[in-house]
Structure formats: structure tokens, C-alpha cells
Amino acid sequence: MTDQEKKIKVCVIGAGAAGLCAVRHLATNTVFEITAYEQTNDIGGTWVYKEQVGLDENGIPIHSSMYQNLRTNLPAKIMNFPDYIAMEGREPCCVSHQEVLKYLKDYAQHFNVYQHIHFNTKVEHVRFVSSDSCGQDNWSVQVRKLKTDEIELCYFDAVMVCNGHYFEPYVPTITGIESFPGLILHSHAYRKPNEFSGKTVLILGAASSGIDIGIDLSEQAAYVYLSHNHDRLTSSLPSNMIQVAGVESIHGTRFHLKDGTIIDAIDVFLFCTGYKYNFPFLDKNCSIQVDNNYVTPLYKHFINIEHPSMCIIGIPTVVVPFPMFHMQVQFFLALLQNQINLPAKLVMLEDSTLKTLKKRHAHKLMDHQWDYNDSLAVTGGFDRLPLFYKLGYQIWSIQRSTNLLHYKNSKFIISEDGQNVELVLPE
Known about the structure:
- With 427 residues, the protein is an alpha/beta fold.
- The model has no long low-confidence stretch (mean pLDDT 95).
- The strands form 7 sheets. It has a 5-stranded parallel sheet. A 5-stranded parallel sheet has the order 8-15-9-10-11, with helices on one face. A 3-stranded antiparallel sheet has the order 4-5-6, with no helix packed on it.
- Helix 2 (17-27) packs parallel to helix 5 (321-336) and helix 5 (321-336) packs parallel to helix 7.
- The protein is globular.
- The chain has helices spanning 3-6, 17-27, 97-110, 208-218, 321-336, 345-351, 369-380, 387-402, and strands at residues 8-13, 32-37, 117-118, 121-131, 137-145, 150-156, 158-161, 183-186, 200-204, 223-227, 241-244, 247-251, 254-257, 262-263, 268-271, 289-291, 294-296, 298-299, 303-304, 310-312, 411-414, 421-424.
- The protein has 8 helices and 22 strands.
């Protein structure tokens, strides 16, 4: 058998941050043969800003949810991959989407990632084929080359799904919405605030995107109503941005809220209600199911328990994403090289059971992300994340909740030994 035949053939789906991270680590080890597929003509995934919405030039839905004035809601310093710390973000600590995209392109260049990516190539079907006599899995991946419409079928030993989860809008059902004569859109299609000049906008949802877009809109809109069912935000907000209860029903331009109040004369209804996990290319026999954003059966939120030669990178939410990708990818590659053994299937299935009240919160890690990342490092036999990631996240979380208008302009300072982090608010 030649060296070429002995290589582990790995398919990477997507060239956003997670896909780039996967290719970067695969490429440093000669045991892997890498093929990465990206349906657009560039790297960066959701960080690629496109002004148009709807469909792209190939008739494929625009993937990115980036808007013109978006700045990160995490300090740039803790968004870096730990092996390529090039985003400074000292002051202001939160950077523009252009800076993040530049960082990803520099990362790809630095680690010579581009040579492994097939652009304008859409993955249409992934199917588990069989396990051979040695217990090795086999996957068939059907792709379509968008420029020529040519279909290609390839076979792999492992599949890394890195298609992101900020592209398929989640829109809840609201009674009477069909009677609303104004503009209805989801944050996925929001781009510029000046298109809403003088309008009265009601935003449904007060997570990161709802708050950030509301503040962005407040400079142009007449009024912005931030409608949600959570505890009231305690931070000061723009004077024309008003917190109200969640929407119960709609009657024309009148919005009936869950606390019994009514708001009239709404021009724009903007859903900031998040996204749905979607893997339309996975065959049923891949055994991955999604129920209200609870993805099963996954060990440690990313290894396919039925077929552990497949992983889905980046499922956990309310995390610092790039460093987590870095940890997940290394764990999976250690697994492919038999450097770690997975626990018994029953143990993995127990790990994947629902541990939150709501299915859509199943992968919400928040403060648990640090133990999670550490557990991957310890089992996988690679370095833990430097302490400043955790310290930076914790100090940022406190500042953000109390100062939504100005926290992004803070100064982010890491001590020389990386053991202390300071966030200095602007005066």
C-alpha cells in the first residue's frame, strides 16, 4: 500500500472561521488528505458583508447576516485563535466586521489554507456508505460546481461539517401578522439604518442582535420599540429606544403586547429572533436530527455518536467562538488518529441528553464553556486555552450588561503574564 492510500481523507464543509480552523490543523499533519468545499467565491462565511439580500448570483440564499455598522460584541483580543493572535482591539476593544474578515484572510494566508479549498462548490449530499472490514468509515459526498453545473461524487474517511448557524432565520408564528401592512424582515436581511429614517420600528427579541441593531437603528428611526419577554435591561438606552413586553398578536399596525398594552402606528416589524440549525445536505442515514435547535446525537456537542468519523464544529452558543473551534478541531483530529478513545456509546448518549428546560437552549454553554474547552484539551492531550480568554470574557460580561451604549469602546488590557485582564470604560 502506498503512502497516498494510507492517508486519512477528510472532507471539510464550509470555509468560514470553523472551516478555516479545521483545514489549518489538518494541513499541519501529513497523515491527512484535505478537501474543503465552499459554496461562495471567498472565505469568511458569515463575516463576508454583502449588501444584497435574498439570492446571490448563483441563485443560492445569501449566507451572511452581517450588517453595515456591525462591530463585534466580544473584545477582539479574545476572538483570536490562540495560535494566531493578530487582532489587537485594545481601544476600542470591539472591532468592525471588516477587521474580523481581514484577520480570517490573514490567518488563511499565514497557514497556507487556500490551496485546499474548492470555491463555488456546493455540497448537495453527504451519505454514510459503510464501515470496511477494519472498522473504517466511508462517506460519499456529492458536490455541484456552481460555475459549470458539473456534479462530482467523492469518497472520504471523515467529514467535518462547518457550515455555520447564522443563515437560516427563525421566525416565530404570531397571530394576525398577515394583517400588518408595513415592512416585515428578519435581522438576517438587515443592512443599513438609513433605510429606516423617520420610521417607527418594533424589534422582537433582545439578545445580542436585537440590542445592537436597535441601537444602530435609533440614530435614524423615529422610535425603536425593543419587544421581549426577559427581565428588563438595566443599562441606559438611546432616548428613542423603548423596552416593551413581547408581542401577543397584531391587528393592522396595532401591536397587542403580552402585558395587555397596545402600540399603534408601527411601520416596520423586525424579527431578531435568532436562527435555526440546518444541515440540508446530510442524508437521513448520517443519523443527525435537529429538533428546535437541539442537535442529536452529539457527544460533547459536536461528535456524531452514531458515526464518530463525522463532527459538526461550532454548535455551542453563548461562547467565544474562534478559540472553541480551535479546541474542537484538535480533539477531533486526535480522535481520527486513534490518540484518544471515546467512552462507551451509552455514556456518550447520556452526555447528549437534554439538560436544559428548553430544547433551543440545549447547546447554550455560557460560563460552562471554560470547563468544556478544558475537558477537550485534557482528553485530547493538547494545550488548554490561555487564562486571559476566560478572564476577559467574565469581565466583559459584567461591563456589557451595565453599559450597552459604550462598552464596545472600552480599553482591553491584558497583563504581560496573561494572568490579569482589565477593561477600562471610556470617559
